[in-house]
Each structure stands twice: as C-alpha cells, then as structure tokens.
Amino acid sequence: MAGSLPQEVVTHILRFLNVSDRKEAALVCKTWYEASLDPILQKDVMLHFNGDTQYVPLSSISHRRLSHLTLSQLDNSMNTKHVLLRSCKQLSDSLRSLSFKSCNITESTFVEILSSCINLTSIDLTNCNSIFLSGRLLERNTDLQLLRDTLKNVKELNLSSIRQLSDVTFNRIVTICHNVEKIWLVGSHIVFSSDHYIPRAKSKLVSSAVLTFENFIDFVSLQASTLTTIDLSRNQINDYALETLANVPNLHLQELRLVACKEIEDKGIVALSHKQKSLKILDIRDCHGVADPGIGAIAANLTQLQSLALNRCRNVTAHSIRKLSYLSQLQTIEMSDLYQVTSFGIEAGLCANASMPLTHVNLSCCSLITDGLLEKLCSIHPYIVHLDLGSCTSLTNQSIFEITKNLKNIQFLRLAWCKKITDLGVLGFELNIDEQKPLEEGCNKNYESTTIFRKPTLKEEKMKVRKMKEEIIEKELLRYKLCNLSKLRDLDLSVCLGLTDIGLVQVLKFQELRYLNLDMIPITDTTVLALSAANPSLEHLVLSKCASITDDAVEAIARRLPRLNNLNLSSCDNLTDKSIRFLQMYSKRLRTLDVSFCRNISPEAIDDLERSCKSIQSVNRRLTGGKTY
Q1: How confident is the model at residue 23 (pLDDT cuts 50, 70, 90)?
Q2: Are both 5 and 120 inside the same structural domain?
Q3: CATH number for the domain including 610?
Q4: Do residues 182 and 157 touch, judged by C-beta distance below 8 A?
Q5: Which SUPFAM superfamilies match (predicted)?
Q6: Residue 239's pLDDT is what?
Q7: Which of 82, 172, 221, 284 is deepest in the core (most CB within 10 A)?
C-alpha cells in the first residue's frame, strides 16, 4: 500500500518531517527511500567522513545531491586523497558547504579539492594547521587565480583554531574568497600589539609569522560594505582594538561574537554600541570585565538586537538587566550564572514589554530567581520554545504549573538540580488548592436551617454520585501535567531528587522527545519500562547513577527504542553482562555508550560488543568489572 503512492506525493509528505523522522520513513520501502533522496529534502543533510576512509560508500552517494560535506581528522595518505577527490567531484554540482575540520592534508590536495567545487558558499578550515604550517599555501599565482574564479560565491569562511595562521596566508585565503560576508577567527592567536614583530617605521609590512590585528583591520576595511558577521572569540582583543573595529567606515555588522575575550571592559562595549547600531546578534559570554555600564549602553543603543548572550558576566546586576525592556525585538536572551541578578530585575527587563517576541530564555544558575518571576514570564511570553532553568534551586512545583499551563509550544526544557520539584508538580497539582466546601446535603452544623433532615432517595444519591464523577473527570482533564507539553524534544530533569516512579510513570509520554536526562533520580525499572514504551523517538537517554535499575530496564530500552544512538548507564551497579548482550542484539544504531563505574559489567562483554556492533563509535568503560585502579 505504501509503495503505491506516487513518488512526488511521498516527497511532499516528507517535507513536513524532521530529519530523524525522515530517515525512519525512508526505510518503509524502495519508493519512499528514493523519494527521500529528492534534492529539496537533502538541503539540511550533512555527510560526515570521520577518520578512516578505507570504507566510504561512494557508490551510494553518487546519485544524491548533497549540499553539505564534513571531512574530519583525515590524514594525507594517497588513499585519502583519492577518496576525497572522487567524493568532491561527484558532489561538486550540488555541494554548498565544505568542512575540513582537523584534517591533515597537503596544500596541493587542498587546492585540487577546492578547484572542483564550483558552487561552494561556505568553507570551514577549523584546526587545519597542517596546510598553513609551511607558509607556502597558495603561493603560486596560478592557484590564486584559479580558486579566485572558482570560489567567487563563498560567503562564509571559518579560520578558527589555526595556530600557524599569518598575515601572508590569511591574505591569500581572503583573496580567493573575495566576496566573504561572514568570518570566524575563534582562538586564532591574533596579535593585537605588533611592535615586537613589525618595526614602527614599517607598520604596513605583513608578517609571515603571525596574524596581526592591523592586517585584519585592513581586510575589514576592504570588505566593510559586505561584511555582516565577525567572530573573534577566545582572542586577546581589548577595548582599544574593539573600538578600532567598531569605527571602521561603512561597516554595518549584524552579528558579533566575543566569547571569553577577558580583556574587554565597559569602555569597549560602550564604543561598540554607539557605532554598530545595526547589530542583531551580540555574544559576550565570559567577558568578566563587562558590568552595568556596558549592558546599559547595549540596551539604550542596540535597539535592533534579536539575540543577546551575557552568560557568566558576573559583574552585571539587576540595575542594568531591567533596562533590557528597551530591546523591543529581542528573541533570545542568555543570562546563566549571573549571581547578582534578582527576580525583580529580570521581571522589569523581560516582562515589562509584552510586545517583546521572546522565544529562547536561559536563566540557569541564577540562584535568586523565584516562582513569581516564572509566573509573570510564562504568562506574558507564551511563545517561549527554549527555557533553561538549571540550578535555579529556589523554584518549586508552582513554576512547573506555570510552565505547563502557559508554554504550549515549548521544545526544550531544562530543570536540572531543581530539588524542590516533586511528583505533585509534574502531575499538575497546584499547591494552593482551596479546601473542599461542605456538602450541600447531609449532616452539618447549619443552625440557621429550620428544614428537618430528610433521608435522600436512591435516585438523588445516584445523581449526586454521577455529578461527583463528572467533576473528578473534568478536574483531571484540566490538570496541567508535564506530558501536556506535546511538542517537547529535550527534557533535563537530572538531580530533581523529589521525583519518583509515582509521577514520572504518568508524565513521561512524549511522541517527539529526542533527549531525556534522568541522572541521579531515584527511579526503578518501573519508570524505565514506562518511558521506553511511551517515547518512541528517543535518541539520547541518560540514566547515570540510577542505582536501582536492572537488566530488565536495559532490555526494554534496547527492544523498544530503535532510534537510540547515545546511552549513559554509568554508576548503575545492578547492571550485568546481560545488559550488554541486550544492546548487542537489539540496539543496531547505538553509537555512544557509557558504562563507566558499573562494577558487574565485565570488560570482556564490552569488547565483544565493540567487535560485533558496527555502529558503535565510543564506549566509556572506566572502572568496569569492579576494578579500582
């Protein structure tokens, strides 16, 4: 019946599924598999070659119009070169992004591969130190001209974590990618004071040893009209350098990331906010020198901002956070580990402006926030899809009630270390329940009534019982259980010690759930059996330190969760070699397994699993089998 549908109809249906569901549907029959290979459905699929190239299914991908190819940790052997060249030539027409993450390839191979990819829009050279080591990359003018014509459509360039990057090699790379709009230089050891490398009299001389900030600014000046994104995270950029960047003529950035740039302080942020008012995304996580003046300048000047990350900027207080209400277009806010920020500050900043289109909120480790903030936040911003409240230790069941009542579209929910949450919360019971009113009929202390008590008839008694049943059913349907969040895909309940089998068995029922973390929760096999039956889409499951689960739980996981690819069972001492055999027999897609500190699982059983299961990529086996070394 499934194979009788026209391929075009099946392709149209598959467009409404996510990648994981699409992969499952492709296994139904040959017609559905061929429909899943339609170019429209391949735009968000990435082909990943990792390490060993002895077996690469070139024949199976030759007819697929893949757009994204990632080559990870490949060596410079002849076999690797042959495989890479064949792959890129077969995919050259459709290939849009190409990544060489940590690849150890030669300069000539690099040039030959890129010359065959005529439609690339994105190149990622993260940690590719080998091709920059000699300094001879693209030193021939013929190579420069060839790749300049070939890579004219490249808009994104990632040069992160390259220790050997110099002015000379950087200039050559940006010469062949002359239309670049987005550039990443995360941890690329940019030198911000070049006096030690270049004499003052020759300040315009490019260095063949290091990448200088002056050279980077020259590049930014040339590309100012087209450049929209810069990432200088984990570099030693200071306020003066940031101000210099912000003052480049005709530069109108939309995205700037400065993660862990610890020398940046308020002065640089204030200068940036005055000059780059077109910014939509700003990430200053781990910039410990940024305090209230910098955040206040951001709120006052960057009115087009849609995403702001302030994680671990620990000098920030509620005084500046309350000014975030000026950012009327803000969609994403990350404020984890802001220990001085209170509920009142966040409420004034995020809840005062009801028109703010907030969808992603991260408040993890903000230990001063309370249930009152969650009540306001959830009622004013009901379209939140991502909420992280990890380690907000003051939150209680009332917060769970507000989340389940208002956030119907939420997809990501993290409540790790919220120890005050109990079964009553996830089951939807409010704390402040009004006391039951006395029955209308029957014996009571109503002295004002002059009516003589009359024994109820059988008909009246039946009607009363029926009415009570209807009220109970109505209250049950209106109860805001955790399982009512039907769109949930990621759920983290780790170390919520108030949860038990009683509540979790009834609420862990999500058709779309991909990730579930129950680390350190005192559950038994009962919960595991229930969740394995009611959550068929689970791909990542964490049950570490759930000491009461046994081999029966692992058998249920292996049999009922066919999509599972990551399983953490560390410190589960009741598990034995039987669990490993169940995984060996039924978990055909398992890629990562953690059984560390499982005393009753033998190393021999794990060895047998690794030999027989082709999908396994990593097994964490520390101190298995009762070893103490």
Answers
A1: confident
A2: no
A3: 3.80.10.10
A4: yes
A5: F-box domain, RNI-like
A6: 96
A7: 284
Going by C-alpha positions, the residue among 421, 387, 616 that lies closest to residue 504 is 421
- Tell me: pLDDT of 377 over 80: yes
Domain residues for 91?
53-178+185-214
Identify whether 379 is part of a domain: no
pLDDT score, position 166 = 93
243 and 123, same domain (yes or no): no
Tokens of 89: 């030539």
Torsion-angle region of 365 (φ positive above 0: left; ψ -120 to 50: alpha; else: beta): left
State both tokens at 621.
């086996």
Q: Are residues 62 and 199 in the same domain?
A: yes
Contacts of 64 (CB under 8 A, 6+ apart): 37, 42
* pLDDT value of position 28: 86
pTM above 0.85, yes or no: yes
Q: Which amino acid would we find at residue 41?
A: L
H/E element, 158: strand 156-158
Residue 450: Cβ within 10 Å count: 6
Cα 411 to Cα 97: distance, rounded to the nearest angstrom: 28
Q: Is 242 helix (H, G, I), strand (E, B) or coil?
A: helix
Query: Residue 489: in which H helix or E strand, if any?
Result: none
Q: Are residues 279 and 316 in the same domain?
A: yes
Report the pLDDT value the prediction gives residue 33, as an integer from 0 to 100. 86
Given CA atoms 117, 120, 125, 129 in this order, what sign does their dihedral have? Answer: positive
> Tokens at residue 343, please?
């509920």
CATH number at residue 12: 1.20.1280
Place of tokens 């959550």: 535
Q: What pLDDT, on a 0 to 100 scale, did the predictor assign at position 214?
A: 93
Does 24 lie in the same domain as 91? no
Q: How many domains does the chain have?
A: 4
Q: How many CB atoms lie within 10 A of CB 87?
A: 23
